[in-house]
Write the structure tokens for this entry.
Amino acid sequence: MSLDPSFVGRTYPPTAPYQVGREKIREFATAIGATDPAHHDPAAARALGHPDVVAPPTFPVLITMAASRQIVEDPELGVDYSRVVHGDQRFAYTRPVVAGDELVCVNTIEEVTNRGGHGFLTTRTEVTDAAGEPVVAVWSKLVVRGEA
Amino acid sequence: MELPTQTFRVTRADLVRYAGASGDFNPIHWSDRIATAVGLPGVIAHGMFTMALVGRAVTTWAGAADAVVDFGVRFTRPVVVPDDDEGTEIEVAAVVKEVTEAGLTRLDVTATCRGEKVLSQARATVRTPR
């Protein structure tokens, strides 16, 4: 499958706010075996200077994966999702995600290449809080495998 | 400087729990029938589950749950998780590449399963422990 390089630079409309719940952070932390009290106990998080429990570093993928459907399901780009494999993932933090955050994602297509019959799509998601302040920037590289 | 290696056991139950918590219900992470149909040796762990375990290792080394400033990996090889009580193991090691004057520590991380690297270019920047 070939991806259209002219999509580089395309930015999509901001997503609806995602409300980060304390129980969701606890559930995610438990699922990955992260027992640090700052993920579970608001008092422990406050002792580190945060208003509520702190999300583990990969937690934002819950929000950005959903947001990136904007791109993956863009009929003009025409990605076949059944052929998508996760290539790279990166998080660059301004501050940790904490319970109570209302996060909005803005997706941009940063890179499109085609090589060896496969398509490579790099998306950047800028995640901001209710005040519009940056929280984390998230990059994902998706590989769209070609027909064998 | 090398940091102490951390080992994480991964079973099918862990993958089911991660699927529920993350909302990633791709059947290649729970159905051998579907995983093998798409050419995998069997059910594999979510790449983001492996990355989350590496994130645990990084925050443990840093000594604080909120220490991670930058964290990136490349997924190079699937982590196959057999349907038994033992599951598999992921070993996570790291070396300190740099400690900056701005109070940041840069780590190069390796994650291996059955002796083979499952990530490449795995790097983390953490606030240097106070």
About this structure: Chain B touches chain A at residues 8, 14, 17-18, 20-24, 47-49, 51-53, 55-56, 58-59, 64-66, 68-75, 121 (CB under 8 Å). The radius of gyration of chain B is 16 Å. Chain B has one domain: 2-127. Strands of chain B lie at 2-10, 68-75, 88-99, 104-113, 116-117, 119-127.
